[in-house]
Amino acid sequence: MRGVLSMLSLAVLLTWPAEAARISDVRNTKHNLSVSGPGPVKAVSENQVCVFCHTPHGAENIPAAPLWNRQLSGATYTPYTSESIDANDIAATPGGSSKLCLSCHDGTLAIGVVNVANGNLNVSFDMQGTHTGGTMPVGEGELTGFTRRLGTDLRNDHPISLTYDASLAVADGELRNPAAVPHIATRAPGVKPSVPLEAGKLECVSCHDPHIRDTDPNVSIKFLRLHRFQQAAPVGGQFNENDDIVCLACHDKLGPVWARSAHADPAVANETYKAGPAQLREFPANTAVWEASCLNCHDTHTVQGSRRLLREGTDALGSLTLPRSGGEPAIESTCYQCHTTGAESVLNSNTEVPNIRTDFQLPRHMPITSDEQLAGQEIHDIVDADFVEPQSRLGKIDNTQRHVECTDCHNPHRLQRNRLFNATGGTVAGTHDHDGVTHSNIASGVLRGGWGVEPNYGSTSFFDLPTSYTVKRGDGGDGASVSAASPWVTREYQICLKCHSDYGYSDNNILPVGNRPELGDSGGTTSPGVNGLSQYTNQAREVQAPITHQGEGTKPNSGAGAAFADNNHRSWHPVVGATGRSGVLRNDGRESIAGNWEPPFDNGVGVQTMYCSDCHGSSTGPGTVVPLGGENGNPWGPHGSTHDFLLKGEWTKDTGTGRPNDLCFKCHDYDVYAGGDRSVDSGFGRGDNLHGLHFEKIDGNRVKCMWCHVAVPHGWKNKGLLVNLNDVGPEAGLPPGTEVTIGSDAQVYNQEPYYWNAKLKIRNFAVAGDWRDDNCGSASGNPDVGKDWMRAVCQNPP
Fold it and tell me: CB of 13 within 8 A of CB of 7?
């Protein structure tokens, strides 16, 4: 059968003609099962065309059926379903004329058996091209998406026999209201809709007319009443019967939002299909992604095991020309059709299509496959058009529900290739502006229309969790507000925090070890013990950016011990909000030290913000967070990395001198902070760079970042992300103000999650740019303070 299908498909590939008018000509379609039929399945000798379906006498007694000449199958069917479907009347026994279609297409009855023919009852015609028992052939395989032997398991087939009315459209949010459009209706005298319903129900014949073909017999229209492919650039709004693909007749997909998405905009989705994949899909030669439209990702009769009609959406083996057969659900397989290497892609050229699959094959990656997830199966299941999932599905109650899928972060019907989520038209890339700008944290086009959460805080203390979370969902439209208070996602962190906070998992707020998810509990993730960690931390706690803690000076209730409140405040990487600490303010009012950051972070110091994906993602070169290869090189985003915690560089107890490509120095100038350059101020000192002084004084030039800075540097209770072993507290399971003994070179303090190879003791926090040696040392004075203490504990550290 593969050879037959390949020959038929080759004819389709000869040209890419626009779909012409439909004509009613069953004789020249595959539904002509007589000996003269053009298809591979036909009678050996019978020359009557209509008899295989119809008879003027002795027809089945089926209401509204067209004089049906076949017995109906008595099979029980497993219907399509999903967590987000709002139709509540899909039964195991399809109704209406759909039962007639299934009498052949479910493969349970012989095609050549009819009730009446030539005056005889129960006639069985000899057929050719059929499967065992004279039933529907299997095409490329009974469990593939390239067969029309649908079987009785219809979970991989478009739902039928469902009531399609205004209530359903309103509940769904992205369906056209049949009460408001003329092309969806039940047939009646003078009413001939393009999408006919049967007694208000959607059936097979709502999309298909078994008697029609294109005026060009080389074009495979699959008996569709409307276009199989998009004919012109979609514009959204009202359905355009002359230009739009059949799917858009019912599925509105927010109209203009879909039309400008990266998968529908002809200026963006202009890649074309390779010959082999096009043949398999029965696409015309050089079909562009925008023309294939919905069919790039969906197939109304897809591979068995796939959910949501995702094309090739299972974990079974497949290739460009070998279809997947059965398997378990795997959303990523659908995405990998295009988002992979040039050799593996179904597209002729995918230079501008991010290669995501390669990142997911790196040693550290999000657990994208089912066997990497705790449940061992695909848990992800959205409940509405905004792709929202309940907290329980994220793992709030049961950590085994934790998962990641492409559509956890991206809404493929809404995302666009634009620098900003709320802009129009395609730009060079769908990721944020990075070079030559004041950096922001505004979501880019690839995150448009996703969903996330905004944490709400009742305290500025590092030790208090958010009091609640506000769900962000929907699409604000072109020019939508970028305020973080908007109902829709406006920030990347909002998408990240729905999983990386106690919104998505249980957190009893016990430190150092509580009931948070364990490191290494999912495949591809960081192993326990790395940097001394056994559990994940709560990023919503850490990245809080209290407005009252912006700037310098004494800020109340940071979480630090009362004896260490003066000149102290919360510190954070500006993922959620800016620090308010300019280059001048960081240097006690003297000349700006903004130049101590690598571009673009040297611009707008104190007012700039950043993304989670500035630190998390695949490896980058020294002094930059931009993915290798530039604009069309490695993708942005935390898909995978060669480094633990999906970081763009190493972050270990050895990070510091001699390691210019480690994480810190992607943004912070290596020469200033670890390379000994004392020609500039650094904010640590008094018109000097004490980072450079330490470089000179410590034996072997072995300055390490974690001696002085917290091991999880999202945010912290002290300024400058500084550890203070005079004030170890609840973060280590100790009372506030506990002093940890560090009495010699060999001693360091390790306690997850925030202390790893720590040595620093601060007696008094100084104003930035006004640090002195006697600010450091043991609070008790034992052993020593200032330079004497440093010589005792830092001269030759491990």
Answer: no
Contact 731, 557 (CB under 8 A): no
* 3 state DSSP class of 224: strand
3-state DSSP assignment of residue 320 = coil
Give start and end residues of each alpha helix (H) in 91-165: 98-105
CA distance 160 to 78: 12
pLDDT of 9: 36
741 close to 728: Cβ distance less than 8 angstroms: no
What token pair was written down for 512?
A: 């150092």
Sign of the CA dihedral running 199, 204, 210, 212: positive
Asked if residues 480 and 491 have their Cβ atoms less than 8 Å apart, the reply is no
Tell me the mean pLDDT in the region 749-759. 98
CA distance 592 to 380: 48
Average pLDDT value for residue range 12-26: 65
Beta bridge partners of 196: 185
Taking 90 as the threshold, does the pLDDT of residue 18 lie above it?
no
- List all residues 6 or more positions away from 371 whose beta carbon is below 8 Å from its beta carbon: 523
Q: Is 428 helix (H, G, I), strand (E, B) or coil?
A: coil
Distance CA 246, CA 208 (A): 10
Which tokens is 115 given? 């009730």
Q: What SS3 class is residue 790? A: helix
Q: Give CA–CA dist 661/627, Å, rounded.
A: 14
* Closest of 228, 347, 214 to residue 282, by C-alpha: 228
Q: For residues 590 and 767, give the distance between their C-alpha atoms in angstroms, rounded to a whole number.
A: 12
Cis peptide before 600 (omega within 30 of 0): yes
Peptide bond into 266 cis (omega under 30): no
Under DSSP, is residue 708 helix (H, G, I), strand (E, B) or coil? helix
- Strand-pairing partners, residue 120, are 117
CA angle 391, 392, 395 (to 5 degrees): 90
**Model pLDDT, residue 20:** 62
Candidates 368, 360, 721, 756; CA nearest to 529 is: 756
Closest CA to 184 of 200, 172, 204, 162: 200
The number of residues in the chain equals: 798
Q: What is d(CA 639, CA 632) in angstroms, rounded to the nearest whole number?
A: 16
* Positive or negative torsion for Cα 379, 381, 387, 388: negative
CA trace torsion 97, 99, 100, 101 (10° rounding): 100
- For the segment 90-112, what is each residue's pLDDT rounded down to a tens digit? 877 799 999 999 999 999 999 99
* Distance of alpha carbon 355 from alpha carbon 417, whole angstroms: 15
What is the pLDDT confidence band of residue 13, given thresholds at 50, 70 and 90?
Answer: very low
User: How far apart are the C-alpha atoms of 434 and 480, rounded to whole Å?
Assistant: 21
What is the signed CA dihedral for 506, 510, 514, 518, rounded to 10 degrees? 80
CA dist 278 and 287 (Å) reads 8
**Alpha helices in 666-725, H assignment, sequence order:** 670-673, 690-697, 705-708
Q: How many of the other CB atoms lie within 10 Å of CB of 410?
A: 22
Tell me what pLDDT residue 643 has. Answer: 98
* Alpha helix ranges (H) inside 96-182: 98-105, 166-172
Residue 408 DSSP SS3: helix
Q: Which two tokens stand for residue 254?
A: 């927010």
pTM to 2 decimal places: 0.94
Q: Identify the weakest region by mean pLDDT among 500-504, 599-603, 691-695.
A: 691-695
Q: Which helix (H) or strand (E) holds 22?
A: strand 22-24
pLDDT cut 70: percent of the chain above it: 97
Residue 42 near residue 35, CB atoms below 8 Å: yes
Between strands 113-117 and 749-751, the pairing is unpaired
Residue 3 scores a pLDDT above 90? no
Average pLDDT value for the chain: 94
